[in-house]
Amino acid sequence: MAKKKVLIVDDEPNIVTALEYLLTMSGYEVAVAENGEEALAAVARAKPDLVLLDVMMPRLNGYEVCRRLRERPEWAGIKIVILSAKGREVDVSKGLSLGADLYVTKPFSNTELVARISALLGGA
Amino acid sequence: MLQGWVIVVVSFAYLGLLFAIAYYADKRADQGRSVIANPYVYALSLAVYATAWTFYGSVGRAAADGVGFLPIYIGPTLMIALWWIVVRKMLRITKENRITSLADFIASRYGKSALLGGVVTVIVVIGIVPYISLQLKAISSTFTILLQYPDIVMPAKVGAMPLLQDTALWVALILAVFTILFGTRHLYSAEHHEGMVAAIAFESLVKLLAFLAVGVFVTFGIYDGFGDIFLRAAADPGLAPLLTPLEGVAGGYASWVWLTVLSMLAILFLPRQFQVAVIENTDEKHLAKAIWLFPLYMLAINLFVLPLAFGGRLHFPDGSVDADTFVLTLPMAERQELLALLVFIGGLSAATGMVIVETIALSTMVCNDLVMPVLLRLRALRLAERADLTGLLLGIRRWAIVLTLLLGYLYFRVAGEAYALVSIGLISFAAVAQFAPAALGGIFWKGGTRRGALAGLLAGFAVWFYTLLVPAFARSGWLPVSLLEEGPFGIALLKPLALFGLAGLDQITHAMLWSMLANVGAYVAVSLADTPSAEEHRQASLFVDVFRRLPEAGGARFWRGTASAQDLHNVLARFVGAEAADAAFRAYATRKHVHWPEQPLVADAEFVHYVETVLAGAIGASSARIMVGSAVKEEALTLEEVRQILDEASQVVIYSHRLEQKSRELERATAELRAANERLKELDRLKDDFLSTVTHELRTPLTSIRAFSEILNQDPRVDLAQRRKFLGIITKETERLTRLINQVLDLAKIESGRADWHVTDVDLREVVSDTLTAMGQVFQEKNIRVEVRLPESVPPVRADLDRLIQVMLNLLSNAVKFCDPADGRIEVALVAEDGWLRVDVCDNGPGVRPGDERIIFDKFAQAGDALTGKPQGSGLGLYISRHIVEYHGGRIWVRNRPGGGACFSFTLPAAPGVRAAAKAEAVHGEKESADR
């Protein structure tokens, strides 16, 4: 069975490094985008199974990326996990209402994040 | 060739043109698109002040007296400055009470006294007739002179001429017809004569143009400019004395003062001036422009008076040509047919303008204040019972016009030859000046009473008659000349020209002195001794307090009685016609939200007052009073009751003032509260933003730290190189966290004022180079080129070294953050000038968004959002820097460079004591840095 593909979208290089390492080591194929616009292009190009999305980003913010992804029926199967430093209730419900499957606040627990991603992707 | 018929045809064509203008303006007014409702037309119509007397007579007077003609024009110029105070009040009173004329104004003020109105009218007629005759004389004699072209022959004595060959008679009759056509097309005199005003304004332009044309021709055509004329006049022994200002006037200073005062009053109280300035005014605001436009006109029309006078006397040295005709005879002598004709038309404009407005004003007065009150009182005529009196009213007005002009002609025929133009005009001025105490006192002094006004007017008029008119008659041969030389019955003290032995003054000064003394004295003395009636009391309050009264209340509060709406309608219909009466009732009903005539109108005090005011607009206040009085059963109010109403009203005014004040205070307090609330909300929002931003900024490094710690902790597969890399990241992110926490703490300290400042002498050169060294690593990593310009030495500043380093590091890391990612360039410069030191840090990035130049120095404002949608950094750095710089007495700002990129600069004052030295050094330093 082919590796599941995860797209990491975040503008903090250090966080990207951490996530990249973590997910690769957990057996995923990983792609990276540094901002919202790049993210949309990367989705179209790489067709990931899951997108890990930061919110506060240059160009398009995470919410906007989420909304646009959900507009396209051909991308409906892509799981979206928002990974944000904004942890207030309003932020979480906004993310979920825009079509995210999961909202995780930073800082996160590596184990938990990997477990949840794995659950979303059908235990691969 | 100027044949008689040419002049006649041109004159009639001109009158026709005037009529066309008037017709057009009336049409436009009917359509509600008034042409006269603008300040320029208003100011031009005021220039009806300049009559044939100005047009021809000024030059005549200047030829005899030098600058002695000037007070007649200085007076109005002074007076117009006071118009905002005087005329605005008159305007308001006139509009609220629908006053139709000067006589109506004075009668209305003093208890709607028909007697007073009549007296004023009589004085006006007697006083103004000479003035009208002056215009007739001007037209007919200039016409006669022009007929002789190219010869210059002075007209013969009029007395010698058969009546029907006298041009002046024909002029008078033609003008009468013309004025009737102009002025009595509508009955309602409180309405504006829009056509007349438009025509008058046009005439003012024509006469100015004609006068300027002849002035320019004589000054620059015949002579060689102003200098040439004045030099020649100074060389002529006969003319030289005229060049000394006060020598020219008999009586010297006193004469100047009195002539000025006289014309100040004339510009207000001449019937035609009152008509155009007050009755015909459409908007109070026009006064503001007229205040400078009218003096400008006066200046323009006087500009060439002296050159023309001197030019005339130099040109006709033998004295065979009357100086009053120089304006016309100079172009004639030079064979300028067209210019002479233009001058004649200009003079015609000046004369007809005056005659038209003056006789219309007079006819309104004669009808409303002299004839109607008498007719209405004559029960034998049963006028009050006739259904429609509009025809009668118009008839009276038309006859009044004809009679006024014929009187003018008669005066011209019998007395006109005795005086030059100027003296006749001044006699009229002195007559209307008699209205000043009653009219001005009436709007500023509540104490003036009807009897006082009457006494003043009669006394002043009697003195005027005796000192000015009697001598005129004596000189014309009507009375024995011995009267002037020896006094009546040989009593020297009563000599008309030297009353009570007062000799040595010129005639006008002498007459003004005595008549004003008698007038003001009688007015004040009788008023003080008198007890006013209730009606007088009420009118006094309506006039004097016109700006202070509550709107709407008007005069209605003073009426008590019973009336029927039908009776009132009948009265109104009789004088203004059924249609106009219907219209007036409808207007009132609309105001009261009543569907008249289906629903009845209640004839209460307010309504009766309304009807009386409307009626006053047609027949004047005193007649209206009589007529309304006949239609309603009125219960007279006692003086006590009127006083009580007035007191109540003033109580209400005071109370409402207090209420207004309270509500203003409340409004202010509410506004302050609202502003405070807004400020609080804004602060709250800022605090929220702050927390959210700080949280985000704290969580981002924490996230990395935790993620890598967990990896290192849980994943045994991490190799050594990776381990080293991850630990490096953890260290960096920890430093970032520390920095942020320090900034927040710093901010708290600075904002609360508890920061410790270690102030020493600091060399900014060191600060700059130290920070550049500290950032060297970063520049290298990001491949940024740095250019530095430092003077060899700069004066020290008194500052906290660590804080300044903080500022510098902040600006530099900002520059690093924003500069061009591919080809980064940063320029740093230190400049000393004028006791100040300035540091510039410029990058080649995208620059600051226009409009954000100040905001970015505020707390948590992040220039980043403008560019990328994401904040970069905490948003605290620039805010803290600003605080630090300002603490040291400096300033920090940013501007975009023309070529792109932002330039942050801050200044600091050089340490005290070295500032003076710094100045010199700064110049030196600049040079050095320029050399690099």
Provide a descriptive summary of the structure in words.
The complex is a heterodimer of chains A (about 120) and B (about 950). Chain A has about 120 residues and is of the alpha/beta class. Chain A contains five helices and five strands; from the N terminus they run βαβαβαβαβα. Chain A has a five-stranded parallel sheet, with helices on both faces. The mean pLDDT of chain A is about 90. By secondary structure, chain B is mainly alpha-helical. The model of chain B is unreliable at about 860-870 and about 920-930 (pLDDT under 50). Helices cover about 65% and strands about 5% of the residues of chain B. Chain B is elongated. The longest helix of chain B has about 80 residues, at about 640-715. Chains A and B meet through α1 of A and α28 and α29 of B.
Give structural attributes.
heterodimer, A: 124 residues, alpha/beta, five-stranded parallel beta sheet, 5 helices, 5 strands, 44% helix, globular, B: 932 residues, mainly alpha, five-stranded mixed beta sheet, two-stranded antiparallel ribbon, 34 helices, disordered C terminus
Low-confidence stretches of chain A: none
Largest β sheet strand count, sense and barrel closure of chain B = 5 strands, mixed
Question: What separation lies between the terminal Cα atoms of chain A?
Answer: 9 Å
Radius of gyration of chain A: 13 Å
Strand content of chain B: 5-15%
Structural class of chain B: mainly alpha
Beta strand count of chain B: 9
Alpha carbon gyration radius of chain B: 43 Å
The number of distinct helices of chain B, counting runs of at least 4 residues, comes to 34
Structural class of chain A: alpha/beta
Largest interface: A-B, 27 and 26 residues
- The percent range for helix content of chain A is 40-55%
What distance lies between the first and last C-alpha atoms of chain B, to the nearest angstrom?
89 Å
- Assembly context of the chains: heterodimer
Outline the secondary-structure elements:
The complex is a heterodimer of chains A (124) and B (932).
Chain A: E1 5-9, H1 13-25, E2 29-33, H2 36-46, E3 50-53, H3 62-71, E4 79-84, H4 89-97, E5 102-105, H5 110-120
Parallel strand pairs in A: 1-2, 1-3, 3-4, 4-5
Chain B: H1 4-30, H2 39-46, H3 52-65, H4 71-81, H5 83-97, H6 102-109, H7 114-147, H8 167-183, H9 194-222, H10 226-235, H11 252-269, H12 271-279, H13 286-302, H14 305-315, H15 326-333, H16 337-377, H17 390-414, H18 421-433, H19 436-444, H20 450-475, H21 482-486, H22 507-529, H23 534-544, E1 561-562, H24 565-576, H25 578-591, H26 605-619, H27 621-631, E2 633-634, H28 639-714, H29 720-752, E3 759-762, H30 764-781, E4 785-789, E5 797-800, H31 801-818, E6 825-833, E7 836-843, H32 863-868, H33 877-887, E8 891-896, E9 902-909, H34 915-931
Parallel strand pairs in B: 4-6
Antiparallel strand pairs in B: 1-2, 3-5, 6-7, 7-9, 8-9
